[in-house]
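name: query_chain
kind: protein
chains: 1
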Amino acid sequence: MGGSSKNDFDSDTSTGSDFHYYGLEMVEKKKNAKAIIYKTPDRVIPVVFLPGVMGSNLMSKEKDGDLIWRLDSIPGTLVWTTRGPAQRGKLLDPSNTFVDPRGAVQEENMKERRLFGSRTDRGWGEVGYMSYGDFLPWLQKVLNDNDEKQENQQTGNGKLTAREKLENYNLNAEVGETNLTTDEVNTSYKYLFPVHAAGYNWLASNSESAKNLSIRITKIINDYHSRGMKCEKVILVTHSMGGLVARHYSEMLKSNNGDSIVLGIVHGVMPDLGSPMAYKRMKMGEAGTTGLVIGANGAEMTSVLAKAPGPLQLLPGVSYGMGWLHIEGKKELLPESDPYTEIYTNRTAWWTLREERFISPNLDNSNFINNEWLSYKDIINFKVKPFIEELNGHYHNNTYAFYGNDGAKYPSYAQVCWKDISSKKHSDLDDAKL
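structure:
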C-alpha cells in the first residue's frame, strides 16, 4: 500500500471505541512512499497503588457521610490538634468508618481520560493528597510516555524516556537486581500502565482490606474488558502497611486468584516483620507537628489504636526476633519468647502496650475498664497475632522492595529502650540545692 503519514495527526477519527486511528494521505503507488503508523497499545496492565497506614481518606458509614480523616491540605488536618483522646476514639472507630473517595485529585488530560477513565474513577481521591498527590501523577506520566518515545523517534532528537534511562542507571541494589535491557524496555512499550489507587480502612484488619482489594482488582480488570482492552493481570505498588494488605491478598487469598492475577509487587518501606515503632507510638505518641495531628501522647494514640487491628498488625511478631525492648535496671531483654503475652497483653507490667490509665482516665468504673481490656486482648489474640504469624515468610514470587539504608542520616528504630529519668531529675535538683 502506498501512503504517507501525517506528522500532526490532524485527521484522526474516532471509531466509537476508546481508541483513535489516524488517517493517511494516499499517494501514487509508483512514488513508493513509506508510512509509519504508531498504534496505541490495546494491552493494559493496571498499576494499583496501596498507601501506608493513615494514608487513606475515611468518612462515616452513612451515605455521603461526613469526612472523618482527610489529608488534602495542612489546614484541613489542623482540626485534629483540638481533639482529645475521647473524641479521637469515637471518630476513628473501625466499625463506623469507610473509605472516602472524595479527596483532592490533580485532573487528568483528555487523552488519559479517554483511555483509562478519570483519576477519580480510578480511586485517586481515596488516598491522602498531601502524601501522594505529586507521586501518582508522576507515576502515571513515566509509565505511559508512549507519545514522548514516539516523538523522540520521529524527530531523532536523541532524548531518552524515563524507562530508557533505567538501562544505564545505577540502581544501588543490595542483591540480585540488574538494569533493564533494551528488549525489556521495548517490550514495556507494547503495554499501557494506567495507575489506580486502592484506599482501605487502615483502622480495620488488613485481612479485611485484602478481601476488599480482591473485589476492587476484579472490577478494574472487568472494566477494561468492557472498554475493549486486553487486561489479565495487575501490578501492585505499596507503601508501608499497604504492603501487608497486598501480601495477604496475593498469598493468603489464593482461592480468590490473588496470586495468579498479580504480575508482581513493588514494596516501599514495608515493615515485613513488624516494627518497634508501632509499640513506641502507642506508648508515647508522635513527636513534632505530625504528632499534633495523629496523636502527641500515649493517651491520644491508645484511644484510637487499642481498637484498631490494622495498626496493631504492624507490631513486631515472633520472627522479628527477641530482645528488642530494653528496660533500664532489668537484666532480661524483652520479649524472651513471646511478645504477645510478655508485652502486648501483659496487663500488670508498666511496659504493657495498653496501659489501663489510658482506658478511662475520667471514669472510675472497674467493670468498664475490665471489659475494654478484654476486648483489646481479643483483638490481639484473634486478629493481630494470627495475621502476623500466618503471613510470615509469604511473598509473591515476583517481589521487589526498596527502603532506606542510611542509618547515619535516617536512623530507624530497631529497638526501644526505656530509661528512668525521674530519679535523675530528682538527683539534679538535690545537687542544685547544695
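note: The CA atoms of residues 305 and 311 lie 7 Å apart.
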